[in-house]
Amino acid sequence: MKISKxxxxxxxxxxxxxxxxxxxxxKIVLGFAQIGAESGWRTAETASVKSAAKAAGITLKFxxxxxxxxxxIKAIRSFIAQKVDVIALAPVVESGxxxxxxxxKKAKIPVIIVDRTIKVKxxxxxxxxxxxxxxxxGKNAAIEMAKLLNGKxxxxxxxxxxxxxxxxxxxxxxxxxxxxxxxxxxxxxxxxDFTIAKGKEVMESFLKKYGNxxxxxxxxxxxxxxxxxxxxxxxGLKPGVDIKIVSIDGVRGIFxxxxxxxxxxxxxxxxxxxxxxxxxxxxxxxxxxxxKWIKSNEGIYRMNTAKKELPKRKY
Length: 315
Ligand code: GZL
Fold this sequence. Notes:
Blueprint: H1 2-22, E1 29-34, H2 40-56, E2 59-64, H3 69-81, E3 86-89, H4 98-106, E4 111-114, E5 128-131, H5 134-148, E6 153-159, H6 165-178, E7 184-191, H7 196-210, E8 216-219, H8 222-235, E9 244-249, H9 252-259, E10 265-268, H10 274-285, E11 293-295, E12 300-302, H11 303-309
Parallel strand pairs: 1-2, 1-3, 3-4, 4-5, 5-11, 6-7, 6-8, 8-9, 9-10
Antiparallel strand pairs: 10-12
The structure holds beta-D-galactofuranose.
The site of beta-D-galactofuranose has 15 residues, from helix 2 and strand 9.
């Protein structure tokens, strides 16, 4: 008994000495290669990361790639040159990351993939994915659309940025589920690049071609749905009534539209990933292992509860 007590005391002394010797522990430096500022969702994600870094005492090096992959690759190379402790990447598209992530691995800098997933040959090129289940979001959107149309009608689809995992997986998740409603026909499907302006432009072209034959719109994000609502009203139809609208994200604007009866459902995709990213960065910087997928929690919100939910929304 006596010997173990002596050992324990000695161990405590060594630990205390090592902390005292190196004084304040070194601040973690995180390099974040963000996609851009294309949507309300993206802006909320950036704000969450910046505020969470501050709260966690992490030094954040931030880059905005204006939705260009080559700018994100440049940013990652700059973070490697600056010898940051951890890199976070919100990949604008799924592929084309193997080479630059090999360089990060060679530099022994762990990488957190954020909000969208990547396709790489070697899964060891990144430590974890912090984000949502896009196929499930698409599936839930289809279930809601089928309910709104009572299993029958013509729909159009506004896709997200072509080649992004959000676009690929939300498209497939929706298509696989809506196939269970054979009387729901897809008239047209085109990318609106996740923006309000492009969503409006593409919806105008759908309305020009199909007019009041359209009974429902599925948009891969709320911002494109908000653009489409403008186009539907200018065309002379009632959004949310003549054309049922289901989209994804859960941003404030869509809650305001649902409260005004102009949209029907939003499937939440939580952008407030900052705290999870900082917690993961600290673990990786300390050499700890983390799960390969740190999943976001999200819900489904409908027109009938939008007014009540609106004051509670954080983005
Ligand atoms: C989803 C995110 C998507 C949002 C869009 O995680 O990547 O990109 O759904 C955003 O609003 O532009």
